Hints:
Number of helices: 14
Radius of gyration: 22 Å
Oligomer: single chain
Helix content: 25-40%
Amino acid sequence: MTSTPSSLQRLHLIAVGGSIMHNLALALHRRGAHVTGSDDEIFEPAKGRLAAAGLLPAAEGWFPEKITADLDAVIVGMHARPDNPELLRAQELGLRVYSFPEFIYEASRNKQRVVIGGSHGKTSITSLILHVLRYHKRQFDYAVGAQLEGFDLMVQLTDDAPVIIIEGDEYLASPIDRRPKFHLYHHHIGVISGISWDHINVFPTEEIYREQFKIFAEMTPKAGTLIYDQDDEQVQLVTVPSNPDVKYIGYGPHEHVIRQGKTFLITKKDDEIPVQVFGEHNLRNISAAKEVCKYLGIKGKDFYEAIATFKGAARRLELVREGATAVVYKDFAHAPSKLKATAAALKKQYPQRKLVACLELHTFSSLNPAFLPQYAHCFDAPDVAVVYFNPHVLEHKRLPPLPPEAVQQAFRRPDLRVFTNSQELAAFLHAQNWQNTNLLMMSSGTFDGLDLGKLAEQVAP
Length: 461
C-alpha cells in the first residue's frame, strides 16, 4: 500500500502516551490529519502536550470501540502488547496496522532517507545534522529520540521536504513485528556510529546483536552511502566494503585542541572553531554529522559556522550548573560503552579537578546478572564512582535480587560505592567536599526523584 502523509487522514495511535508516539500524534495533527489515541498510562510531558492539542484520550485504558472501519490506518507503539484489545479489533476489521518505523517509511517513500544507527551516539549525530540543516534554513523532515533545543516536536512529516533525517533505533519495531526499527526505514545514506551489545532481553548474545547492524549495512542500496566509525572493532566486522555500488566512508574523532576546559575543532585550513560539546565520542559524532551534511550539500565552512552554535541534545552530557570551581552534568548514559565514554570525557576536559560520577542501573540489561560483567573497568575514570539501583525495579522487571557486592565485583572496582536507597545516596552526595570537584549523574531514569537542582546548587554555587 503506497501512501503519502496527506492521503492518510484518519489515524488512531495505540500507546499514544509514549515519548516518540505522542510526538508523532502531534506532528500528524499539525499536518491536518484527524488523530485519536489510547494508552493505559500517560505521564508528563506527553499528557500536557496532548491535552493542549485536544488529543488527550478522555480516559486511560483500551477501548476497542474506538477502532472503526472508517480509519485509514492504526499505528501501534512498542508499549502495547500483542493481545491489546484495540490491536485485535484493528486486525479483525482488516485495517492497515503500522509500527512507528513502518509509518515513517510510508510517509517518506519519495524522500531521500538518512538513517543514523549505532548503540551509542545516534541521537547526538542526528541532532547535529538537524541543527546544521535548520541553521542554513534547509527544508527537511525528521524523527529523533530526544527533545532538541529549537525544535518543539521530535517528529516532523511534510509533503514538501526532499529529505528526512531518522534516528535509527535497533530495538524492536512493535509488539507484533520483531524486526529492529532501523531495518524498516530503507536508508539511502546510513550511519553506524558504534556497536556495543545492548538489549539483552531481545538479543541474547553479542553475535545476534551485531548481526542486526550487519543486516542494516547490507541494506544500503545501489548508489547509496554507508558512513561508519572506522576505529570501532565491532563496526569493522559489519561494514566490510563488499558492494562495489555502495560508497563506504570511515570516520574518526575530529581534530581538536582543549584549552582551559574548552574544546576547539581544527579545520583543514588550521582555523580553530570553538564548540560547546566535548569528549572523544562527541568529536566522532561531529565527524559523522559532517560527512552526512557534505552529502546533503553543506560545505565545510557552513558546517563549522553552524556547529559552533550547537548546545547538544537534551540529557546527552547536558550542563546542569556551572560554578567557579565545579560543574554538574547529567547524561542519559547507562550502557557500558556510553558510561565509559562520558566519564572519560569529563575527566579529560577538566584533568585538574576531581570527578564524582554516579550511575543509576535502570534498564533490563543493566540490572541483569548475565549482562553486568560487561561493565568491567567501564567506570575507572572517576575519582569517586557511585552506582545506585532500586530493588523494586528488579521485582518489576522480574529479575533476581542483585547483591551490592555483585555489582562492585562486576565493575571490577573495589572502592565502588553501591546504594539501594535514594535518600542515602542523596546524603552521601551532599556530604562530599565539592571544592574543585565536578559531578556527573548518569541515568535513563531519575534516581527515584533525587532533587538534582538542589544538589547542583550545593556543588556549583
